[in-house]
Amino acid sequence: MDPADRIGRDGEAFEHAKVVLERGRIGIGALAIGLGRASLDVAVAYAKDRRAFGKPIGEFEMIQWRLARARTELDAARLLVHRAAALADAGVRFTDAASKAKLYASEAATRAADSSLQVLGGYGYLSDFPIERNLRDVRLMEIGEGTSEVQRIVIARELLRLD
Ligand SMILES: Cc1cc2nc3c(=O)[nH]c(=O)nc-3n(C[C@H](O)[C@H](O)[C@H](O)COP(=O)(O)OP(=O)(O)OC[C@H]3O[C@@H](n4cnc5c(N)ncnc54)[C@H](O)[C@@H]3O)c2cc1C
User: Fold this and answer.
1) Which residues pair with 55 in a beta bridge?
2) Does 121 sit in the ligand 1 pocket, CB within 6 Å?
3) Domain boundaries, the chain
């Protein structure tokens, strides 16, 4: 290898890789929120349109509970992602913020897609609507760029300063 092609110094590679991963985690968080929101939009429209027992299913409290929880958690996830992105843009350390954003957004978006699927009943499970695919796609956000378990390890390490 030509030494001129080397990026960084000996022993620094893992630190560089971690920076790439940390930035990637913010992107995965944003991607998860998009999949959750796309699913929820379909569920809200369906809840207004589908009638059961003489009224739109959106009037049933258990449907409203699902929609309200999903929207609240997705909004909270968005704030965590924005915070991590703002810290990264400011050039300050964002390891902890990126892990929290990725962990919370990916799990909240999976819950949102799952609840949205349930609001559609049997149709939610069919490919006539996009939610079954969103649910499969969003599930990957809990695995790629470091699993939820890895994010919890990073967050706990920052909290406890074990190394
Ligand atoms: C569709 C898809 C696309 C992908 N794209 C990419 C890509 O573009 N680039 C890339 O680099 N990778 C990619 N990956 C790989 C992905 O990053 C890995 O699957 C992920 O990091 C988990 O690694 P693993 O599959 O080897 O699981 P393992 O490391 O075998 O882990 C298995 C389980 O054990 C848990 N576990 C492992 N260690 C611990 C521990 N210390 N404490 C607690 N639990 C632990 C994990 O959280 C997980 O639940 C992709 C994966 C998929 C499915």
Assistant:
1) 52
2) no
3) 23-160
36: burial class by Cβ within 10 Å (0-12, 13-18, 19+)? buried
Q: What is the pLDDT of residue 89?
A: 97
94-to-82, 89, 121 alpha-carbon distances in Å: 12, 10, 40
Instruction: Give the span between the Cα atoms of 148 and 101, in whole angstroms.
Output: 11
- pLDDT tens, residue by residue, 49-87: 999 999 999 999 999 999 999 999 999 999 999 999 999
Active-site annotation holds for 61: no
Q: What DSSP line would sit under 6-49, residue for residue?
A: --S-TT-HHHHHHHHHHHHHHHHHHHHHHHHHHHHHHHHHHHHH
CA distance 152 to 3: 38
pLDDT at 23 over 90: yes
Considering 12, 145, 149, 158, which one is annotated as catalytic? 145
User: In the predicted model, is pLDDT for residue 163 greater than 70?
Assistant: no
Q: Which CATH class is domain 23-160?
A: mainly alpha
From the list 145, 124, 146, the residue with the least C-alpha distance to 136 is 124
Q: Which of 142, 149, 152, 157 to mutate to test the pocket of ligand 1 (most atoms within 8 A of CB)?
A: 149
Residue 116 has pLDDT above 70, yes or no: yes
